[in-house]
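From the methods appendix. Each design record in this collection lists the tokenized structure first, followed by the designed amino acid sequence. Records were kept in a plain field format so they could be parsed without special tools. The example shown here is representative of the layout used throughout.

RECORD:
FOLD TOKENS (180 positions):
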């Protein structure tokens, strides 16, 4: 399997996906929809109506909902631990948000019997026209058999109700990650 994408390319893709997700903010609807990556690398469950955005990199998956919700999944074919994948995912988040500050400490857990890690951070993103937006970003990673996944999701910090809803949605997608 090829090595993961270069870090700068990964960060550019995440930044573009983040800006797309910021365009629309609304309440998510939840229903089951399973996505399985080509080659059966991993599966996860998404809300009904979500779609995979066109990929420029086979290891970066951006899923967008109908109301502006978004999660970014990073596939790490060379990582075999949740800690290593978490660190790589957090580094990608650092490249997207300035002044990255922990909102919660990383918590080790299990996702479908696999080692995992989860935390949330706050920071500032640069939007169009030089506008700065305060965001919460959640960051998680799951170790699979011979690889690992990272998950990122961003939402506005100034709307606590929306932040709670979006974090629950991101946690639900994260908790569904599994080996097919």
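DESIGN:
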């Amino acid at each position: 399997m090829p090595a993961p994408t270069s870090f700068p390319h990964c960060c550019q893709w995440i930044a573009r996906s983040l800006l797309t997700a910021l365009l629309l903010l609304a309440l998510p609807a939840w229903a089951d929809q399973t996505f399985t990556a080509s080659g059966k690398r991993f599966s996860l469950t998404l809300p009904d109506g979500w779609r995979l955005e066109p990929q420029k990199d086979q290891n970066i998956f951006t899923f967008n909902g109908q109301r502006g919700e978004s999660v970014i999944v990073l596939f790490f074919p060379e990582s075999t631990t949740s800690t290593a994948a978490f660190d790589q995912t957090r580094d990608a988040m650092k490249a997207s948000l300035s002044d990255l500050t922990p909102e919660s400490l990383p918590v080790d857990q299990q996702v479908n019997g696999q080692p995992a890690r989860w935390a949330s951070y706050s920071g500032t993103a640069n939007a169009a026209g030089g506008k700065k937006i305060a965001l919460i970003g959640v960051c998680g990673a799951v170790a699979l058999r011979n690889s690992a996944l990272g998950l990122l999701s961003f939402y506005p910090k100034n709307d606590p109700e929306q932040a709670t809803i979006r974090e629950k949605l991101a946690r639900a997608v994260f908790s569904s990650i599994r080996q097919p």
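APPENDIX NOTE: The chain has one domain: 7-25+42-175.
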